[in-house]
């Protein structure tokens, strides 16, 4: 593994474990967002270990992890220096710039060479992060070059300093001689060896003295952090999307949920392309017609998902996992795709309100084509649908495996095709790391995908969560007590992710008994989990969301989440009541109610009068605290 990749993967692992986005880490370390992204992706190496330490501590790294990061940074920095040395010998495209420059005082630490060194000026570690350096700052009043403070000395240019203690920089006359390319090329290998020896000793020194550098008295990383109180985000009161509480249907019967939902998604109900058109030009509308009519009777909007190419349209490709003649590849002739899309959109104009243009890209069991072809299918389908039904909403294909770098890379590749400009929403598979993991991991994944991929690629569409990964059918069923509130927390995690523009959630699934959580079997009564989905919607009827947060920042115990709402039309003086839904990710914890609390509602349907200052226990079953306005 390349040395810089090891460091990058360690930083990326810490970032993912912390649940913080690149933007959040940047704001807490004083670095730019792009710098944090480059370090975690292995695109560049931090110029000082202080930078690595700041990122790691914000992500919750302990002393043992810091000790492990330091050797990785030493190797990465040495590798970067070796690349520079090769550049000085004409092996790098930037050789001319290196030859024109000079090695600054930080060369003994293996840090990057800044162009300002060509002027003989000392450059601090920030230069390796691509930040601007004022050349005058590197000189004293007499115009002489000033050596930077040795690493390990408190109050240097970064809040957390490097643990090594290199020798002072050589005199300016020696630096001047280094401007000669041939001499620089000969000396760099010796500098690298000195660097390695010094850094090896620095590991021991850091283990012994590193903790002292973090104390407020020494101006370490901890003292530089802001102590922020308040929610993760807040906004002017906004309505919840009318189709937020959706479910994916796992039936072809036309039956609909007996508990309150706000929309249905058609995918596992035998409406895949290959099932509807088993022979070219011969369409069977019976199942889709039955499902749409059932939704119309129940007053439920429909999201139709395309996918499952017929065998005749891609005869040489692999079968899907559905046990029929649907295939994973796009059709050999995209004209076949165009004709099918047009027939569906024309027939169901004004009856189907939204279309998802493929399911679960990233899983080869669902799509095995390339992103360029998928983008072409999106462009063509979008034009056809909007031509047939201008009011229809188009969602780009849902991407899965987003906890993995492979899935994120595919999403990034698709974004770079420009296909998102043909869509109204971006569909994603946002789910816990495991199908039966805590629903709150959806919050982490939504922020990760939004900040690390879509934001970077300039995609600002609203997001729809259209379900889990394909391992959903392999997980055992949840225990009865846990199952009661799991689906409710799934939707609450979506509300918490409103900041990431997540505005629709489709729970997987309705009608099936072969998934970890059954909300209602076809022909049976809703389970308690299903009834609680309806109860949550009743709690939030006519409510507008205003903020979400968790833990001590919002005055609650650790692991306790909160989303706040108000009833009224959002204008001053029209608020009828304030609402707070609270729940714990795990365990139980208690806290005192704040001012104006008057009613507590529980998921089992019970409620009680409460008063400000009363102590309330929070657990994995959400509660609703209602506040008065006077």
TrEMBL record:
SMART domains: HTH_XRE. It comes from the Bacteria. CDD domains: HTH_XRE (cd00093). Residues 134-177 are annotated as: Disordered. Residues 144-164 have a biased composition (Low complexity). Keywords: Membrane, Transmembrane, Transmembrane helix. Residues 10-66 form the HTH cro/C1-type domain. Signal peptide: none annotated. Pfam families: HTH_31. The keyword Transmembrane helix applies. InterPro entries: Cro/C1-type_HTH (IPR001387), GH (IPR017853), Glycosyl_Hydrolase_39 (IPR051923), Lambda_DNA-bd_dom_sf (IPR010982). The chain crosses the membrane at residues 187-209. This is Helix-turn-helix domain-containing protein. It comes from Streptomyces monticola.
